Structure formats: C-alpha cells, structure tokens
Amino acid sequence: MIDHTLWLPYTQMQTTSTPIEIVASEQEYLITKQGTKLIDAIGSWWTSCYGYNHPTIVKAIQSQAETLPHVMLGGIVHPQVQRLAHRLKALLPADLNHVFFANTGSEAVEIAMKIAIQYWLNQGQTRTQFVCFEQGYHGDTFYAMSVCDPVEGMHHIFQDALPKQLHTPIPRSKEALEAFKAWLSLHKNQIAGVIIEPLVQGAGGMKMHTPQMLKEIDTVCKELNLLLIADEIFTGFGRTGSLFAINQAPIVPDIVCLSKALTGGTLPLAAVVARTPIYEAFLSDNPEAALMHGPTYMGNAIACAAANAVLELFNTEAWQENVQKIQTQLQKSLAPLSNSAKVKEVRVLGAIGVVELQQNIAHNKAWFVERFLESGIWLRPFGNIIYTTPCFNIKSTNLQQITEAICQHIHDWKT
Ligand SMILES: *Cc1c(COP(=O)(O)O)cnc(C)c1O
Predict the structure, then answer these.
(1) Can you tell me which atom of ligand 1 is nearest the CA of 105?
(2) CA triplet 352, 356, 362: central angle to 5 degrees?
(3) Which helix (H) or strand (E) holds 351?
(4) Who has greater pLDDT, 397 or 157?
(5) How remote is the CA of residue 155 from the centroid of ligand 1, in Å?
(6) Which residue pairs, CB below 8 angstroms and at least 24 apart, start in 179-186?
(7) Among 46, 110, 137, which is best to mutate for testing ligand 1, by the most ligand atoms less than 8 A from CB?
(8) Pairing with 312, which of 15, 51, 255, 368 sits 20 to 30 Å away (CA)?
(9) Active site residues
C-alpha cells in the first residue's frame, strides 16, 4: 500500500510501487525494515562519499548538537562556520576566498546567479541572462530550473513560467568552440554569467567533456569579460578524481557552488564561493550594494561541524588512491557493455560509472530497480542512464557485485 500522505520526489504516486523502507545504514549499506543489507550503488545521490555512519562525522555531529546546534548568522558567527569558510578558501585555488553558506544545491545556484546579477548592478549595468548548456542540471527551484536543459531536462513543462536563458550545446570541437565564441560576443552585454558543471554534467544525462574544453570555455569567458560559475555540486570533493573538477583544467571560475558531498551525505549544507574581485563589487558606502540574501539556517553549526569532519577525512584518508582504484575497476568491468547493441556509450571518470542506453527506460525503470534489489543493490536509473557513484571506500568485491549486476540486467532486459 502506498502512503499518500508522504509525497515522494519525481514520483508518479498513482503508479509507483511501495517504496523501500530503510531503517539503518552502515558503510556502503542501506538496511531495510526486513533486515536486508543493500549495497548503495549511487551513494544517496552521490552525497555519501565516505559511506554511512562514519564515526568521525557521527562524533562531530553529536558533540556539536550538545554544544551549539544553530544560531542565525545575522550579526553572529561561531567557530564551526568560521573554520569551514577558511578551510574551503584554503582548498579552492587562487582568490576563491569569500564563502557564503546556504542549505541546498539549488539554493547555492540561485545565490550564485543573484551574486552575478548584483555584481553588474553594483557597477551600473543591467545584465540578467545566463548562458547554460544542454544536458545541464542545476537544481529544482525556479532560477535553477531555468538553466537546466530546456528540452530533455526534467523541467521542460515549466518553460513558460521560467526566465528565458541562453541555452547552447557544450562545444566539443575547434569549430564548435569558434561558433560558441562568436555567439557569446553577440550577446555579451546582456549576459550576467555562464554556468557550467565542470567535466561531468550530472543529473541531466551524465555527459562528460574534457579538461581541455573546460579550459577553452574559461578562456573565452575571460576574453569577453563574462563571469563563469562552476556548479561543482556533483563533481566537488573528489568525485572526478581531483578534489574539484576545475583542478583538472585547471581553471579559476569567478564563482563556485558546492553541496552534496560537503557533509558526506549527513546534513543539508551548501556553499557559494566567490573570487575577490566579485566580492569587492559588493563593498560600498551604499547599504543596498550588500548581497541581499540570508537563509535562516545558513551556516548551521551542526552541518558545518559535519563538513569540518568530512574535510578532516579528505586530509587523512587515501581518497585519491581509492577513487583511482574505483575508476580502473569501473573501466575494466563496464567496458564489455560497449559491444552491446542496447548500449550507446560507456563513460567512466573517477568514481562515476555511466552506461548510456540506446533507449529511454522510463517504462522499464521499475523492472530495473527490482532486478537490482534481487542482486542486493540499491540503484535507481533515470532517462536512458544506468550509473553508479559509490562511496570512495567501497569494498572492491561490492563494486564488482554492482558492475556484474549492471551487465547482467542490461543483458536480460527485453527492449
Ligand atoms: C544535485 C545538484 C543540484 C541541486 O542540489 P539540491 O541540493 O538537490 O538542491 C545542483 N547542481 C548540481 C550539479 C547537482 O548535482
């Protein structure tokens, strides 16, 4: 029986099967009400980078809850939020030195866009449009929806309710890059910023581009004096093999959005980090030139304590080595699928393994989820994508169980 009181995300409540009840978790496992241990192949939407219930994170959360759970940041600061801001500044390159906190990824994207618009307003310019890329995904709130893929994205039915942005494919050749540049210069005076998911576009289809192309896009933006916003909400914190995807190009975007793995999958927290010239455009005698934003729970002390513990783990754990191992194992074990007529492409980067199928599996999604459950795995495909984003410390035998199940169920699937 479906509980119609609890409205689930992206779910047709009339036809959905009963959701799995999870009552506990440990390491890479989710434990069902019936006591079954499922290997989480997708790390709770790739947030859980060190697995569940990591003692370092648990301890930090417990102790902060007993000391100071939360206090608003209007006129007040606390040690956890200060420590976290300084840590993020130290981890990010160059002068990405100014950190504004929020609660969710979508909110971080909204704030980044607001900063970009106000950056120009504070200099007497009205620039309100954003350049964004096909297959992109930046969140579910209204401005975030407006920069998602307008056709294939999950929000196309809202098109008439959204601000009009400038959508374009990610250039993938020299000619495409030239065309992109010409098109940008044409619109440049109306552009508040260019927003991109560096190296891997996540929930919009798990498409990848090269560090070289990312570098080229950054160069074009700098030449045309356009702000570049890197949405690292999916790619940030080791997922692609480097701490941030921008490190691989390397580039220094004007604004970076972070969330998801920031608290290791424990609490909602997001950060927007700006370069010094962006921040300085808000310094003025005019009170209205200040950044006009302030979420109630921003810089929540328990969430910041969790994030500080997670960043501690990035210092002490061999995450880079582990992600490299996962990448090698994924490449080897998913490669055979490239020969399947049902498969369009296999892509692997860091701890991200993607199988893009020829056909959308919307109508077979439940079938796939059932098969994976029978294999002891929690994996939820979307569109024509079956993917895995496991935690970095997953046991290699468990990763093997995931990839074998992916291969087996695609093989058994009657298209
Ligand atoms: C998940 C995601 C978001 C939105 O984050 P929420 O916390 O779900 O609002 C934005 N951008 C990217 C790249 C994401 O993966």
Answers:
(1) 5
(2) 110
(3) none
(4) 397
(5) 14
(6) 180/217, 180/220, 181/220, 181/223, 181/224, 184/131, 184/220, 184/221, 184/224, 184/226, 185/224
(7) 137
(8) 255
(9) 10, 137, 231, 260
If one counts every other C-beta atom within 10 angstroms of the C-beta of residue 285, the result is: 5
Which residue has the least CA distance to atom 8 on ligand 1? 105
Which atom number of ligand 1 is nearest to the Cα of residue 231?
13
Residue-level pLDDT at 268 = 98
Q: What share of the chain is helix, strand, coil (3-state, %, to 5)?
A: 40, 15, 40
The mean pLDDT value for 389-408 works out to: 98
Q: How far is the CA of 346 from the centre of ligand 1 (A)?
A: 23
CA–CA separation, 393 and 406 (whole Å): 20
- What pTM was estimated for this model as a whole? 0.98
Q: Which residues line ligand 1 (CB under 6 A)?
A: 104-106, 109, 137-139, 197, 202-203, 231, 233-234, 259-260
Residue owning tokens 């859980």: 48
At residue 215 the predicted structure's pLDDT band, cuts being 50, 70 and 90, is very high
Q: Which residues of 312-330 are buried (b: 16+ CB within 10 A; e: fewer)?
A: ebbeebebeebbebbbebb
Look-up of token digits 């498409």: 207
Each residue's pLDDT tens digit, 57-72: 999 999 999 999 999 9
Q: How many angstroms is it from 234 CA to the middle of ligand 1? A: 7
Q: Is the pLDDT of residue 364 over 80?
A: yes
In the numeric block, the tokens 């940041």 are attached to 73
| CB of 385 closer than 8 Å to CB of 327 | no
Most ligand 1 atoms within 8 A of CB, residue of 106, 200, 239, 272 to mutate:
106
Q: Which residues pair with 27 in a beta bridge?
A: 52
Bond before 390 cis per omega within 30 degrees: no
Atom of ligand 1 nearest to the CA of 141: 9
Whole-number average pLDDT of the chain: 97
* Residue 30 alpha carbon to ligand 1 centre in Å: 22
DSSP letter for each residue of 354-389:
EEEESS--GGGHHHHHHHHHHTTEE---BTTEEEE-
- DSSP 8-class letter at 7: P
Cα-to-centroid distance, 124 and ligand 1 (Å): 31
Q: Quick check: 291 and 278 in contact, CB under 8 A?
A: no
Which residues are registered as beta bridge partners of 26? 29
